[in-house]
Design brief:
With 224 residues, this protein is an alpha+beta fold. The chain has two helices and ten strands; from the N terminus they run H-E-E-E-E-E-E-E-E-E-H-E.
């Protein structure tokens, strides 16, 4: 025969709690049951550890080199060559052209993209040709001047002298009939010419002669 209290072994904590609630309600009592009696304990909520963000690093300030200001060009004379000659000519034109700066005794070859493809010292004179724009109207690989008894290579004519009406152009340093040059290449860059032509070294005159075509623009900048 079973023990009168044997039914208690079948009672689980949740059944006991439910019974307590029901019994209490039957007796008119207010019973507050713990929710832990009805559900399994929840797993603990992990707490994230606080990790401080790394401090922002600031790159050290770098020193900027000062911009060197371009010095103003100084004109040539009969005894001194020009100084502070700029990389580009001082004209306002664009496209293929030859720029002759009488003040600096320098010529620039400019291509169609307005890039400098050559810059050469020359011998000329300040008073001619007049400043302005011209065009190459004829070319000769060999030319001569019987009055001065000289010959010269790579003549490119673009205007005429104001008094003699003789052609003025770019060409190599003239040579007398005996082969002696009229002046040395060391004097290129000086305003010592007696005629109106613009003289270059033999090599520079070849470059100009290959580069320029009949009809191409020539820009002459003013004297100082």
């Amino acid at each position: 025969m079973a023990s009168p209290l044997s039914f208690l072994g079948a009672l689980t904590p949740s059944r006991l709690a439910i019974g307590a609630v029901v019994g209490g309600a039957a007796l008119g009592l207010t019973v507050i049951a713990s929710s832990s009696a009805f559900s399994a304990p929840s797993s603990p909520i992990p707490i994230a550890s606080s990790v401080s963000a790394p401090a922002a690093t600031v790159a050290p300030a770098t020193s900027t080199s000062p911009v060197t200001k371009q010095k103003s060009p100084k004109a040539a004379s009969r005894t001194k060559k020009a100084r502070n000659i700029p990389e580009r000519p001082r004209d306002t034109f664009h496209g293929k052209r030859l720029v002759y700066d009488k003040a600096l005794m320098t010529v620039w070859m400019m291509n169609a993209q307005d890039e400098v493809v050559g810059r050469y010292p020359v011998v000329g004179r300040w008073d001619r040709p007049a400043k302005g724009t011209y065009h190459i109207f004829s070319k000769s690989k060999m030319a001569y001047n019987p009055n001065s008894k000289v010959t010269f290579h790579n003549m490119m004519r673009f205007t005429y002298g104001p008094d003699t009406r003789s052609p003025i152009g770019f060409h190599a340093i003239p040579k007398y009939y005996d082969g002696t040059p009229m002046h040395s290449t060391k004097q290129l860059g000086l305003a010592i010419a007696r005629g109106g032509c613009v003289r270059l070294s033999e090599e520079a005159s070849k470059e100009l002669y290959k580069f320029m075509r009949v009809g191409d623009l020539v820009v002459v900048l003013p004297s100082p």
